Amino acid sequence: MNQNTFDILIIGAGPIGLACGLEARQAGYSYLIVEKGCLVNSLYKYPLNMTFFSTADRLEIGGIPFASIQPKPNRPEALEYYRRVTDSQKLNVNLFEEVVALTSAGERYQVTTSKATYLARHVIIAIGFYDVPNLLNIPGEDLPKVRHYYFDPHFYYKQKIVVIGANNSAADVALETFRKGAEVTMIIREAELGRIKYWTKPDLENRIAEGSIKAYFQSHLTQIREREVEVQTPTGKITLANDYVLAMTGYQPQFGLLQNFGITLSPDFKRHPYYHPETMETNLRNVFLAGVICGGMDTHIWFIENSREHAVKIIRHIQGQKQEV
């Protein structure tokens, strides 16, 4: 067999892509995982001090224990765990190699990347949703002061920042930057705070109640300028002095990539990709989805802990096909 030909090619080296690799390896298939960024690229982009919702055991893949000194692991612990899994299991992973095309080649698929061309009988798409931010679509959003990603609070010391959003990311950004000396204002479309970690929400509510963090509910930005922003509130439009805008408005999957591959998406706003729930197979024979990508715009449906089973379903289905032959 040619060295660039595999039984299974997996797109994405996030936790679920790695889980698929572990299952393929255990089943005795030749496989390759290709990732356009670093290992577990989405987790790497998480804020420096982020703590997971889940306990360590629910982030485990392949039955390999995840030891954490905290009740809920943090970003550095997760990165360490997935590196150790990759090394200890000798997973076949190519990093910083972007998939650009998927085409039919008889009984196989040709997968073209930024570095090579591969043939595979089966393809698993396990990409995340952290690369495409949901835009505000307002004047001034392209200014350098506007950030859709947040990493470390120290940068914002003594800065006037606006945080857009009502959920976990916005809550973490608001609290962390406030505690590092930023002047924080939250702009929230809804009438109340959203889905926030239970140990974080009371803290934020108290900071808002005491006025340490200013919050405008049922409000939205209408324009961003170099030194200020305009906000539409229920009582009218106001202007706030501002140094940085942190738009924690969420992210979406790479729908264009799926469409280029030929995978069917629902015609509505949710853009759910088609797949069989028992086999994870898409409308393309022997092309499968795994992980958060399965939810389309509903990025809150699938997480590491409840989509690990996708890897098991896919490999079980592939094994069933082989037995039928």
- Can you tell me the CATH class of the largest domain? Alpha Beta
Report how far apart the termini are: 20 Å
- Helix-strand sequence: EHEHHEEEEEEEHEHEEEEEEHEH
CATH architecture of the largest domain: 3-Layer(bba) Sandwich
* Count of individual domains: 2
Radius of gyration: 22 Å
**Percentage of β-strand residues:** 15-25%
The pLDDT mean sits at 94
Any idea of the CATH topology of the largest domain? FAD/NAD(P)-binding domain
Compute the number of strand runs.
17
CATH superfamily of the largest domain: FAD/NAD(P)-binding domain
Low-confidence runs (pLDDT<50, min 5 residues)?
Answer: none
Task: Kindly list the characteristics that best describe this protein.
7-stranded mixed beta sheet; FAD/NAD(P)-binding domain; alpha/beta; single chain; 7 helices; Bdr; YpdA family putative bacillithiol disulfide reductase; Ferredoxin-NADP_redctase_2; 325 residues
Quick synopsis:
With 325 residues, the protein is an alpha/beta fold.
Describe the protein.
The protein has 325 residues and is α/β, with parallel strands linked by helices. The protein has two domains: 5-132 and 251-324, FAD/NAD(P)-binding domain; 135-247, FAD/NAD(P)-binding domain. It is built from seven helices and 17 strands. The strands form four sheets. Strands 1, 2, 3, 4, 5, 6 and 17 form a seven-stranded mixed beta sheet that branches. A hairpin with a 3-residue loop joins strand 5 and strand 6 (117-125). It starts with a strand and ends with a helix. GO terms for molecular function: oxidoreductase activity. Keywords: Flavoprotein, Oxidoreductase. Pfam families: Pyr_redox_3. This is YpdA family putative bacillithiol disulfide reductase.
